[in-house]
């Protein structure tokens, strides 16, 4: 497979150099284009991965936030995904911090900014509070991680867990979860 990939890359480089020559580009530029073209896919892939990876200052800033600032941060990410966000009051929210999306596919989100792994209570709260807030899906977001018991409980109830390592992909996760549920044919 490795040889096949290199053959394709070399063929692509030769074609790019030939096209440049046909367009009247100087000969040494054609050689440079032919040599650089096979490297382009790896460069673009590394560029995308690098752009999606939070920098040291971004991670440090997230870890310095208070609980309400972390909720605001998650709400901004959800709004940037193009869905409406309702921030619930600090008390009487039944364990739901954010309500994301349109009815009937609303997502109940519990935000936990902690210095230790999040336990089962966060999952229990959001799963119990979701019907009270007219939500069909649930999610717990944290800057840290989850205990094994919390992961097992979330799996049992279909609750999505987003930990600190997955926060850069939170926007795409929210988009996926706020899409209408497709009926399954049996």
UniProtKB/TrEMBL annotation:
Keywords: Endonuclease, Hydrolase, Nuclease. SUPFAM superfamilies: Restriction endonuclease-like (SSF52980). GO terms for molecular function: endonuclease activity. Transmembrane segments: none annotated. Residues 63-169 form the Restriction endonuclease type IV Mrr domain. InterPro entries: Restrct_endonuc-II-like, Restrct_endonuc_IV_Mrr, tRNA_endonuc-like_dom_sf, Type_IV_Methyl-Rstrct_Enzyme. The keyword Nuclease applies. Gene3D superfamilies: 3.40.1350.10. Pfam families: Mrr_cat. The keyword Cytoplasm does not apply. This is Restriction endonuclease. It comes from Mycolicibacterium rufum.
């Amino acid at each position: 497979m490795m040889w096949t990939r290199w053959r394709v890359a070399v063929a692509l480089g030769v074609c790019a150099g030939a096209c440049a020559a046909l367009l009247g580009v100087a000969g040494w530029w054609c050689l440079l284009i032919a040599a650089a073209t096979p490297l382009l896919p790896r460069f673009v892939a590394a560029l995308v991965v690098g752009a999606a990876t939070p920098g040291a200052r971004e991670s440090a800033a997230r870890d310095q936030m208070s609980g309400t600032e972390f909720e605001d941060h998650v709400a901004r990410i959800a709004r940037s995904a193009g869905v409406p966000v309702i921030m619930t009051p600090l008390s009487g929210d039944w364990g739901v911090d954010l309500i994301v999306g349109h009815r009937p596919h609303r997502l109940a989100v519990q935000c936990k900014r902690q210095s230790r792994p999040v336990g089962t209570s966060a999952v229990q709260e959001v799963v119990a509070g979701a019907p009270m807030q007219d939500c069909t899906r649930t999610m717990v977001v944290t800057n840290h991680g989850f205990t094994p018991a919390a992961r097992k409980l979330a799996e049992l109830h279909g609750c999505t867990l987003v930990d600190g390592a997955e926060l850069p992909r939170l926007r795409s996760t929210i988009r996926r979860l706020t899409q209408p549920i497709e009926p399954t044919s049996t």
